[in-house]
Amino acid sequence: MDQERSMQRATLIVVMTTSFASTFLGSSINLAIPAIAADFTSGAVLISWIVTSYLLASAAFLLPFGSLADIMGRKRLYVIGIFLLGISSLLCVFAPTANILIILRICQGLASSMIFGTGMAILTSAFPPQQRGRVLGLSASATYLGLSLGPFIGGWMTQTLGWRSIFLTVVVISFIACGLAMAKLKGDFKGLGSSKFDMTGSLLYATGLTAFLFGLSSLNSVFFAPFSALAGAILLILFVLYELRNTEPLLNIRIFRDNHRFTFANLSAMINYSAMFAITFVMSLFLQLVYGFPAQTAGLILLAQPVCMAIFSPLAGRISDRKDPGFVAAFGMGLSGLGLIIFIFLSPQFPIWLLVADLMLIGIGVAFFASPNNNAIMGSVSKAFYGVASSSLGTARLIGQALSMAIVTLLTGFFMGNMTLAEAPAGQLLLICRTAFIIFSILSLIGVWASLFSTRPGRQNAASL
Questions:
Q1: Can you tell me the distance from the alpha carbon of 298 to that of 283, in angstroms, rounded to the nearest whole number?
Q2: Do 373 and 272 touch, CB atoms closer than 8 A?
Q3: d(Cα 174, Cα 177) in Å, to the nearest integer?
Q4: How far apart are the first and last CA of the chain?
């Protein structure tokens, strides 16, 4: 019994550590973008790929690695992912050019997809049902902690130790977690060991998503980008058609076809992340390059949004237990959309107190969207489909994040071309910010509709799934 408890504690610590490291890496690097751009003297479009490449690789390989882990053993792939994250982060510390840093960020994205696709499944396998809610809550708190502390710590480290110190921090965390996982985690936590890996579906999905998002974000900078986006869209359509006919699919498409609420709740999640994720990136540029704040101060200001998310998420979750979660999620998306509309009017004279208040409003809106929408997704399926629901939610989140950065990358190329961030006039940076927030505001309105539409009964209820 003591040995089992020790293994459970170690499992919880490892998963919480990697949850923190992955979100910290994503949120902290946004504050370092101006410093990285100055160090490499690269164009703004190329620099934006430092963020986009990580998200794109994570989104493209999350489903394939999650399925592969169920077959070959979750611990094995999880440990490989942690080790690869540590090695790629170490190489990022010594990256001599922006191009090499982008390649290494792709490796980090691959590693993170191994971690994302297996961590929650390992945690669920290690604990009995009556304890899973508590440990999943603790893991979620580590995720929020990384998201909350990332901007402030990343800004402080960039200003005092240099941007490379962010990657060095992830190296230390990754190697500690890897050693603990190898020493303490027992068993492979296999899921569907007798299943066949869907290689065709994996290739169609990963290639299609990569080609589509690359093409979308590069329309202004790469001549074959439109063909890439079109080819990606065709491959994704072929993926859906193939998965509908496959007896052991990578992703159970039928549940989207047959469950109205599940489909629109996932759609609203993807739209929410598409509208919200790049806020930190855009506001980091605005605060440092237009307002002239140092990275540490910018990180402290940006802390307002995730702190409000963490404070109000439990309240939003409790409300969604009593009210229809779709209506609560729509209310949250509406609040966030209002905050995005206010940011359309950003200017060098925009009051700092209003900027902070607006970030808080967006954070409260995201809190009232995220927990209720997760509740809507998980509550729309039976227990047999919890794994599918969790995978689909993670995929929607990463695709939304990658799409958000693809929009910003596209706008950066349109307004700045090959210009470096240091050369960019404040007026052009403001155009990028305002145009991005116009697009994000429109996406939020669409998200409100999707959340409200999810409250309508679908063709098949949760019990039958």
A1: 8
A2: yes
A3: 5
A4: 36
| Selection from 163, 207, 149, 113 nearest residue 401 by Cα | 113
Which residue in this structure is represented by tokens 């490989």?
80
Q: What is the Cα–Cα distance from 431 to 347, expressed in whole angstroms?
A: 10
Single-letter amino acid code for the residue at 165: S
Q: Tokens standing for 305? A: 């949004």
Q: Which residue has the tokens 């910018």?
A: 298
> Which residues share a beta bridge with 43?
420
pLDDT, tens digit, 9 for 90 and up, residues 102-111: 999 999 999 9
- The encoded tokens of residue 138 equal 């603790």
Structure tokens at 421: 């961030």
User: Is residue 457 classed as helix, strand or coil in its secondary structure?
Assistant: coil
- Angle at CA of residue 303, ends 334 and 377, nearest 5°: 45
In DSSP terms, which residues pair with 329 in a beta bridge?
none
Cα dihedral 225, 229, 235, 239 sign:
positive
Handedness of CA 397, 400, 404, 409 (dihedral sign): positive
Let me know the angle formed at the C-alpha of 233 by 445 and 45, rounded to the nearest 5 degrees.
70
Q: Long-range pairs for 92-99 at CB < 8 Å and ≥24 separation?
A: 92/164, 92/167, 93/164, 93/167, 93/168, 93/171, 94/164, 97/40, 97/42, 98/36, 98/40, 98/42, 98/46, 98/47, 98/50, 99/46
Partners of 200 in the β-ladder: none
Assigned token pair, 157? 């480290």
pTM of the model: 0.83
Q: How far apart are CA 263 and CA 166, in angstroms?
A: 37
Q: Tell me: the pLDDT tens digits for 131-160?
A: 765 676 677 677 777 877 888 888 899 989
